[in-house]
Amino acid sequence: MWQLLNQPYPCEDPVRRRWAKAFWIGVFVGLFLLIFQPFGLNTWNTPYKTLKILGFGLISLLVTAGLSLSLPVLLPKQFSNDRWTVGREILWITTHMTLIGLANYFYINWLTGSAIYSSGLFGMIIVTFVIGVFPSAGTVLVNYIVKLKRYQQLAREFPVREHHAGNPADGPDQRILITLTAENEKDSLVFPPTDLLYIESSDNYSTIVHLKNGQPVKTLLRSSLSRLESQLGANDPSITARNPMVRCHRSYIVNLEKVERVTGNAQGYKLHLQDGLFQIPVARKYNDTLVAQLKSMV
Questions:
Q1: What is the CATH number of the domain that holds 220?
Q2: Where do transmembrane segments lie in this chain (predicted)?
Q3: Residues 82 and 180 grouped into a single domain
Q4: Residue 249 half-sphere exposure toward CB, CA atoms < 13 A
């Protein structure tokens, strides 16, 4: 069980998905309380009772949206795919549930001036937690299994390419050079396109990983990833036409011609380069286009 909780799980949800998740959690809480009326709500005699009960759903929506939109921005390293696991996702959801219980407790006190639920604040939080933890954990585990099987199955469709060190002087593309220039327009890096492995964003810099005398080296340039992306292939229209150097993640550009193997887990695909020395993640938004492009290059 502990191994399962430590398995990687996707974390990077677009903002619209976070809003959608908050909306559906709010709808679930509001309708659940309206239909079943636990915590003494069934004995609550008040005007506009239906609207007031649905207010619990609105509170739940606001709590979920506030957490989901603020904490990943304030603590980006903690909410990165590198660190996110099944266990963290379950803990994250149950934290939402616990805070929802807390917020709704104060909401009902604000409406009535006293707690309807006889067990008080702690009891309401515990009951909310218990109600939420099992469907939350079940949903996460099912989603993990579905995504894992999907990405592993699709990854097996890609043939394994053998890694060849080769001679850096070989190949017609060696006569064509790529020039990547830093923002100061002074620092630059020049190399054949066949020597590029990938480029990684590093805050205000970008790390270019390329071959030099057949061995991978890393060169740091002060430039955004988008700026370097626009420079790739600028000296050779044929490179742009077949476009092997593509954005596969908000932090990575990869040379697809250097991809030797594709694997998958619940977070998505991993591209393996240089006998697995480098593993490049693929963001979900690039899955379909990148898969089609890799297949066309086989």
A1: 2.40.50.1020
A2: 22-41, 53-75, 90-108, 120-146
A3: no
A4: 21
**pLDDT tens sequence for the chain (298 residues):** 677 788 888 876 667 777 888 888 888 888 988 998 877 778 888 889 999 999 989 998 999 889 888 888 888 878 877 788 888 888 888 888 888 888 888 888 788 765 555 556 676 677 666 666 677 778 888 888 888 888 888 788 777 777 666 544 444 445 578 889 999 888 889 988 889 999 999 888 999 999 998 899 999 999 999 899 988 864 444 444 456 888 999 899 999 989 998 998 888 889 999 988 999 999 888 887 887 787 777 6
Q: Which of 120, 97, 125, 95 is nearest to 109 (CA)?
A: 120
Q: State the alpha helices, DSSP H only, in the chain.
A: 2-5, 15-36, 49-74, 86-112, 120-155, 225-231, 237-242, 287-297
Q: Which domain holds residue 105?
A: 2-155
| 11, 56, 93, 101, 161 from 98: Cα distances, Å | 20, 14, 9, 5, 49
The first and second tokens of residue 277, run together, are: 């020395």
